[in-house]
Structure formats: C-alpha cells, structure tokens
Amino acid sequence: MCSRMAVIEVPRQYGYCVLVATGSSFMLLWKAMKVGHLRRRLNFKYPAVYSPDNNLFNCYQRAHQSTLETYPTFLMLLLLGGLHNPVVSAVGGAIWCAGRVIFALGYYTGDPRKRTRGNFGFCGLIAMLYCTGRLATGLLGWF
Q1: Which end of the chain is more exposed for a tag (fewer CB within 10 A), N or C?
Q2: Residue 98 and residue 141: Cα distance in Å, rounded?
C-alpha cells in the first residue's frame, strides 16, 4: 500500500492568525491581572481558588477560569483552521476574543447572568471550526 504525503503551504496571511493568537495571550494576561488585583484588595489568600462568601471575587475568578477551559480548543481551531483560510480563521478568532472580553466584563458586574452578553463569541468559534473541518477534508481529498 502506497500512501501519498499531503503538503501544507502556509499562506502569507497566516500571520493574521499568529497575531490573533498573540493578542489572545494579552487578553488572558488582562484577566489574570484583574483576578490578582481583586485578590490583593480583598486580602484573599492562596491557595484558595474561590471564596466561600465573596460572590464578586468568584465572578472574576470564574470569568478567567472559563476562558482557560476553552483556550486550548480556541488555539487549535485558530491555528489549524488558518491553514485552510487564514483570514476567516483570524476574524473568527478576533470575534471569539472580543466575546470573551464582553463575557468577562459582564461577569465583573457581580451578576453572572450578564456574562451571556459575550455569547456572540461562539460565532467566531464556529467559523474557525468550519475552516478546520475544511482543512481536514481537503487533506483527505474529500473536497
């Protein structure tokens, strides 16, 4: 059985995906700093992750933690999908990042229901998912 190798060319526009990935790191750093500042202001000691009696701190922590939980999937879809269509993937990634910022700002009000304002970020995730699926099916010769 002879198999052929697939060749992947990295288009010049892939730099947009790299820029979005870099920008997303700044977004994570911003969220970590917000939690750290509130932790110091409230004198909430490590290693405790959540407060038994301070809902505002828990909202800040949850906004950061939720983003960290989805971050590996975001990066995988952004960077693989960008090999198929870097512009669509980068725009999708930027939308996801903007959604995560709005999500956090809603959480930072202390009312967890306001986090849903950032749900539009899932549209960006769907765009990156589409591009990643197209990369896979193209490599398999299905399209």
Answers
A1: N
A2: 34
Spatial separation of the C-alpha atoms in residues 50 and 116, rounded to whole Å: 21
Tell me the DSSP string of the chain. Answer: ---PPP-----TTHHHHHHHHHHHHHHHHHHHHHHHHHHHHHT--TT--S-SS-HHHHHHHHHHHHHHHHHHHHHHHHHHHHHH-HHHHHHHHHHHHHHHHHHHHHHTTT-GGGGGGGTTHHHHHHHHHHHHHHHHHHHTT--
pLDDT value at residue 7: 82
| pLDDT under 50: residue ranges of the chain | none
Please tell me the distance from the alpha carbon of residue 17 to that of residue 28, in angstroms, as a whole number. Answer: 17
The one-letter amino acid at 4: R
CA separation for the pair 123, 28 (Å, rounded): 20
Q: What are phi and psi of 46, to 5 degrees?
A: -70, 155
Residues 98-124 pLDDT 10s: 999 999 999 999 999 999 999 999 999
pLDDT reported for residue 9: 84
Q: Is the peptide bond before 47 cis (omega within 30 degrees of 0)?
A: yes
